[in-house]
Design goal:
The protein has 349 residues and is an alpha/beta fold. The protein folds into two domains: 125 residues, 3-Layer(aba) Sandwich (Rossmann fold), CATH 3.40.50; 186 residues, 2-Layer Sandwich (Dihydrodipicolinate Reductase, domain 2). It contains twelve helices and 14 strands. Strands 8-9-10-7-11-12-13-14 form an eight-stranded mixed sheet. α1 crosses α11 and α10 crosses α12. The protein starts with a strand and ends in a 17-residue tail after the last helix. The relative contact order is 0.15.
């Protein structure tokens, strides 16, 4: 039985709590949040197994000293890496929401801790577990479209001022680490790179179109990437659309094309023409655009821990996505000063 803590008890923690409450081999033994009522509510809803108690704390350092096997990190972005390092150094396993870090220095600190405590640090890239992703994996592996030579991806969602007002750490470089790229579209970038690998060349532009003077990060990003073998990809994400539209991911091959949109995969090949595969959405809770892969992703992490196998999504497995994200930011040379960015000291850990 793994004794588990949840660090941060906001919206995404509800999904983690729900999954953990369904698992027979884990016990939700501690929850932590700076808002005690929010932590108590998470414990009340998901620490329900007979005869088991759940500690409720507001200081995250207390989790380091508790008898816990794993801690789920569901906090604001800038806290992910520092907390993960502290928990790993205290001998605990860590399962972390995206992103793994908000800058290269944080990533290097995380890399050091991971090397010193191998086999403990896992990440929640739940879209890798979507049925549509599994279908793409299978079709690409079967060679249905020949060699993948390119890809394109579009994320067009809506985030208005109220979204940022409800979570003041968002919309600021110092605490969110960026905007549309690091938060809303990192999972789609991750899937695009899944089939193309690490780019040799990255060029990008960014802008803040619809929330000038209200947020200090990008609401729109476009990137062009070139990969070994002259493979190419185009990536576009914006929070300025009218609604949260389904993402579009397309892979171009030498013999055909695969398109993922919503719960459907469309196949076009030179030999067979067009066909469609409709995928049934898995059961999940929370916002629809999160997808429903959390359950499979979390379960897979614990299965690997219990069996002593390599973790399914470890630091090495997310490094290409992190590095490419940082290269997009670095290439875009998005001027924080142009949008009124002031020097902000991060909240004390």
């Amino acid at each position: 039985m793994k004794r588990v803590g949840v660090m941060g008890c906001g919206s995404i923690a509800q999904v983690h709590g729900w999954v953990l409450s369904e698992m027979e081999d884990v016990q939700l033994a501690a929850v932590c949040d700076i808002e005690p009522e929010r932590a108590k509510e998470l414990a009340r809803k998901y620490a329900v197994k007979s005869g088991q108690s759940c500690a409720v704390v507001t200081d995250w350092r207390e989790l380091c000293d508790m008898d816990l096997d794993v801690i789920h990190i569901c906090t604001p972005h800038y806290l992910h890496a520092p907390m993960a390092v502290a928990f790993l150094d205290s001998g605990k396993g860590v399962f972390m929401e995206k992103p793994c870090a908000i800058d290269r220095q944080q990533f290097e600190e995380l890399k050091r801790a991971d090397a010193e405590h191998p086999g403990k640090l896992g990440f929640c890239f739940q879209n890798r577990y979507n049925e549509t992703t599994r279908q793409l994996d299978l079709l690409v592996a079967e060679g249905r479209i020949g060699e993948v030579i390119g890809g394109r991806a579009f994320v067009t969602w809506r985030r208005d001022e109220s979204y940022y007002q409800s979570s003041p750490w968002k919309g600021r470089w110092e605490t969110e680490g960026g905007g549309a790229l690091i938060n809303q579209s990192i999972h789609t970038l991750d899937l695009l790179l899944r089939y193309l690998g690490k780019p040799e060349r990255v060029e990008a532009t960014m802008a803040n179109h619809h929330l000038k003077d209200r947020i200090r990060v990008e609401d729109t990003v476009e990137a062009w990437m070139e990969f070994p073998g002259e493979k190419r990809a185009c990536f576009y994400a914006s929070n300025g659309y009218a609604t949260d539209a389904p993402i579009l991911l397309e892979l171009q091959g030498t013999e055909g094309r695969l398109t993922l949109q919503d719960q459907e995969v469309t196949i076009w090949t030179k030999q067979e023409g067009i066909s469609h595969i409709s995928c049934e959405a898995a059961l999940g809770i929370g916002k629809s655009y999160w997808g429903a892969g959390h359950r499979a992703c979390i379960r897979d992490y614990y299965k690997s821990l219990n069996e002593g196998k390599a973790l399914p999504i470890n630091l090495e497995g997310v490094e290409t996505t992190f590095d490419t994200m940082m290269r997009i930011y670095e290439s875009a040379a998005f001027s924080k000063a142009d949008y009124g960015e002031e020097t902000v000291k991060r909240a004390e850990l």
